[in-house]
Amino acid sequence: MKPFLNQWLQQRGRSLVLGIPWFWLLLFFAVPFLILLRISVTDMGEGLDPFAPLVQTNDGEVTLHLKFSNYVSLLLDADAGWGQTLYVESYVLSVKYAFWTTVLCLFFGYPFAYFLARSAPHLRPLLLLLVMLPFWTSFLLRVYAWKGLLADQGVINNILMSLGLTQEPIQMLYTDVSMLVGMTYVYLPFMVLPLYANLVKMDNRLLEASQDLGATPWQTFWLITVPLSRSGIVAGSILVFIPCLGEFVIPSLLGGAENLMIGRVVWDEMFSSNNWPRASALSVFMIVGVVLPLAWYNQYVARKVEQERLG
Amino acid sequence: MNGLGWRRHFGTGWLLGVFAFFYLPLFFLVVFSFNSTRQDSVFTGFSLRWYQALLNDTRLVEGFMLSLNVAFLSATLATILATMAAFVLIRFGRFKGRTLFNAMLSSPLVMPEVIIGLSLLLLFVGVERMIGWPERGTLTIVLGHALLGMAYASVVVQSRLKEMDRSIEEAAIDLGCRPFQVFFLITLPNISQALIAAWLLTFTLSFDDVVISEFLSGPGVTTLPQVIFSYARRGVNPSVYAAATLLMLVVTLAVVAYGVYTARQMRQGQPQRSA
Fold it and tell me: In sequence order, what E strands does B33-88 have?
């Protein structure tokens, strides 16, 4: 038995090692995506059926039901016109939040990564560990904590009022403030780490040369450091922007009724309205919205690699 | 010289400020887990009542046990699959459909979790209608987490496989090892640290995930993050703060233990392999 098994493994080994992950990815990634596409082009079903069949056989006559109405209804409102739907609105809102979160992360994260990279070498591992440590404790709990911190009767408002800075509590929870604080908080490490990795590798001789040639520290920073760290900036921004776009938990906990992001809308369509076809169409729409910026980024990286090979 | 001093203070200040921002919520959770009343804005006195409440909260305790199970199973499954996938990508050279394979493998890294959850839900519902199985519950959550974890784990394993010295493998082949023996006797021990890192990473991902679980769990099956999520939407619950404090304690202890362990290894002069 054993030699036989060995022989079989030897002959089939390669296809086995190749086949198992292939099978897994096809079954749990490709097939679900195709189902998503398929449901997105049908109507809602009748009765208990969540979606209508794609192909119907009626007395030997085969009819194909292919409807793009779900996609149209995402973009077109019967009364208000093109682009005036809840879906477009929440998508635009998601892009806005993702954009401002990226800007905030860059603003706080860049100097942070810069000073981290310039700190004493023996301190760096500890400081990096301190950046990662909150990352290992539940993301959900950290977001939950902000709820208590930002509430009207929360810690921050209490401190502000006891300092006499404000008489009335400032409403921060369930507004843009809580949304941006929460998202910046969660995604800041994603910006810091690639920036740090980039800045710590920077050739100090270039900075010295710039100084020797009479540049002020400020000029050196803007003319040498920042352009050299461009790939870190792009990587960090992508790592922040993309997950922000589809964020679900933060708007659910820290956002109000107006802070409806696209991830929440998919959820509501699926479980509140039970409109599976529309939820699917919205997901396809979202995938396109994520894939396009990424394709651009991949091209950017490829060009960069090409440049480095040539230069 | 004065300008340099100013810059250094500014740098230290910025670092401290951002660190304070990082740790403020953690500090908040710890402090208010010991509060004697339900409110979370004023510290009214020290008490352990929320820890007691936590132990009596069957939903939280059961959720915790389920999350441990799910995270253990999905991390194991994800690491095995990711190792195979990484091996295929790094060692098999060109094969048919490599681009598609790679794209499918790494897509979950950038795909919004809502979409992963939704599309898997549609698959499981469809299969269940056809063959009456699987019901939504622990199994479906494990599969969903494994799909997400595999993408992350394969990044870790791939980078280790890439930098591994291939000449030892070649030597083993020259000495008459069969490919499977080479893998289990040479390759696997060499990448073991990366596998541990990948397993831990996928474990934490699964233990922390709420979105995929929300889509794929069935009635009566709620992971710890799901329980916390439902409490969080309802309002203040200091038992959750207590749970958070305990979790942080475990993580901190684990990190410190790991730090001590590596420090001791370095002192003993053993070569350090990076994961």
Answer: none
Q: In A, which residues are within 8 Å of B251 by CB distance? A: 133, 136-137
Q: Which domains does chain B show, CATH number per domain? A: 61-237 (1.10.3720.10)
Contact yes or no for B115 and A248 at CB 8 A: no
The answer to whether A10 faces chain B, any CB pair under 8 Å, is: yes
Of A144, A154, A185, the CB nearest to B232: A144
Provide the ipTM.
0.86
Nearest-Å Rg of the Cα atoms of chain B is: 23
pLDDT tens sequence for chain A (311 residues): 566 666 666 667 778 888 899 999 999 999 999 999 988 888 776 665 667 666 666 666 766 667 788 888 888 877 777 777 888 888 899 999 999 999 999 999 999 999 999 888 888 988 998 898 887 778 888 999 998 899 888 888 888 888 888 888 888 888 999 999 999 999 999 999 999 999 998 888 888 899 899 888 888 889 989 999 998 999 899 889 988 988 999 999 998 888 889 988 999 888 888 888 889 999 998 888 777 777 777 777 778 777 877 76
pTM for the whole thing? 0.88
Nearest alpha-carbon partner for A207 in A180, A229, A175, A238: A229
Count of CA atoms in the C-beta half-sphere (13 A) of A290: 27
Could A286 and B259 be called an inter-chain contact, meaning their C-beta atoms sit closer than 8 Å?
A: no
Find out if CATH 2.40.440.10 is the number for domain A72-310: no
Which residues in chain A have Cβ-Cβ distances shorter than 8 Å to B143?
28
Report the Cα A150 to chain-centroid distance in Å. 24
Residue A185: name the closest of B108, B25, B101 by CA: B25
Domain ranges of chain A: 15-67, 72-310
A to B CB pairs, distance under 8 Å = 209
